[in-house]
Design goal:
This protein has 4 helices and 5 strands. With 125 residues, it is α/β, with parallel strands linked by helices. Helix 3 packs across helix 4.
Length: 125
């Protein structure tokens, strides 16, 4: 296990373990300001230093809840650590879900844009 979280998206999204999340000085050094805790049983150790969001259900992952938090972090240009106990399962699933959601939105926008251009070309052509 690495002492450092993995940077998934430059200057924005970091993946890590509870051990990573428990290293306040390290997180501050790399500019983390927000933490998505995917394990309800893990304590949010530094509430005065970071903005936390904790998923509440230990049995199922609340992807929509996680995605909304990550989208807000992105709008705020905040660096966010997503963590679970080992940094291998729950947090990876949340990050993958968020990235897939972004890809789906981009694909929808692209299809809409192509459709508008096709209609415009047909109308003038």
């Amino acid at each position: 296990e690495s002492a450092f979280p993995s940077e998934i998206l430059k200057d924005f999204l970091f993946l890590g373990s509870y051990d990573n999340a428990s290293r306040s000085e390290l997180l501050k050094t790399i500019g983390i300001s927000h933490i998505l805790n995917t394990v309800p049983l893990c304590q949010n150790l530094y509430r005065n230093s970071f903005t936390y969001h904790c998923l509440q259900d230990d049995k199922t992952l609340q992807f929509d809840d996680a995605i909304q938090f990550l989208e807000q972090c992105e709008r705020d240009k905040a660096r966010v650590l997503v963590h679970c106990m080992s940094g291998k399962s729950r947090c990876v699933s949340c990050i993958c879900s968020s990235l897939l959601d972004e890809v789906q939105r981009l694909a929808t926008c692209t299809m809409f844009s192509v459709g508008e251009r096709t209609e415009a070309t047909s109308a003038t052509g």
